[in-house]
From TrEMBL:
Taxonomic source organism: Bacillus methanolicus (strain MGA3 / ATCC 53907)
Pfam families in alphabetical order: Spore_YhcN_YlaJ
Protein's name according to its UniProt entry: Sporulation lipoprotein YhcN/YlaJ-like protein
Highest taxon in the source lineage: Bacteria
Residue stretches of biased makeup (Basic and acidic residues): 211-225
Length: 225
């Protein structure tokens, strides 16, 4: 009897200790909302941490530093694996939310491919050129620099963009279909040129965007071809 009481008492102490530990860990931010153990700064492999701004002020104040080295093994392509780590749907989500912060923009559809960002937005802005520039730069601030960004306030193209949601880079005739949609989007204001070497969509002057030349698309749009 005494032995049974002793064992029960030890179990109770262990349970209380575990509860206190969990409460303490939670208070220190050691557990996220899903219950998975993480460090204080939240090391989930997400592009940006989520949550209330007041809860993230300490996290966002931290600098970020990472060092990478190219593999010294001849033929080792491991350093290229990071290109496949981009979550395009998450990028589209972030871009869309950022763009709704642009004045006079309240409805944004965003498509992220392997090299383009296509954005259709609703606006009542009186300065379409300025709004287009702001929307475009929101997207440019999020995606890798090789991306080209195309925007339009022509809401009739929203369905066209949505139709690509179930496709991918290997879909049949995907390049020509994206090509046709970009041609229509370029009829809308695209904002200022990015710099002296890039046009408004981030294309290098005279350069080729992999499978097709966007400069030719733009020129054909102007000439009505």
């Amino acid at each position: 009897m005494r032995r049974a009481m002793l064992i029960a008492g030890m179990c109770g102490i262990a349970a209380l200790t575990a509860c206190n530990t969990n409460n303490s860990a939670t208070e220190k931010g050691l557990y996220n909302r899903t219950g998975n153990t993480i460090n204080v700064n939240d090391d989930r492999s997400e592009l940006y941490n989520r949550g209330d701004y007041r809860d993230l002020r300490n996290v966002s104040a931290d600098f970020g530093y990472v060092r990478h080295q190219r593999s010294g093994i001849l033929g080792d392509g491991g350093s290229n694996n990071h290109y496949a780590a981009i979550d395009r749907e998450q990028l589209a989500d972030i871009i869309g939310k950022y763009c709704t912060d642009v004045p006079n923009v309240d409805d944004v559809s965003t498509l992220v491919t392997d090299e383009e960002v296509l954005i259709v937005y609703k606006t009542d802005s009186k300065n379409r050129y300025k709004t287009a520039d702001q929307v475009k730069k929101m997207a440019m601030s999020v995606v890798p620099r090789w991306y080209h960004v195309y925007v339009t306030d022509n809401e009739r193209l929203r369905k066209n963009v949505e139709n690509f949601a179930t496709l991918d880079s290997n879909s049949r005739n995907i390049d020509s279909m994206i090509n046709g949609l970009v041609k229509q989007m370029l009829k809308s204001p695209q904002g200022r040129e990015m710099n002296n070497g890039e046009n408004a969509n981030g294309e290098t002057r005279g350069g080729i965007n992999d499978n097709f030349d966007r400069d030719n698309i733009r020129e054909n749009t102007k000439t009505g071809k």
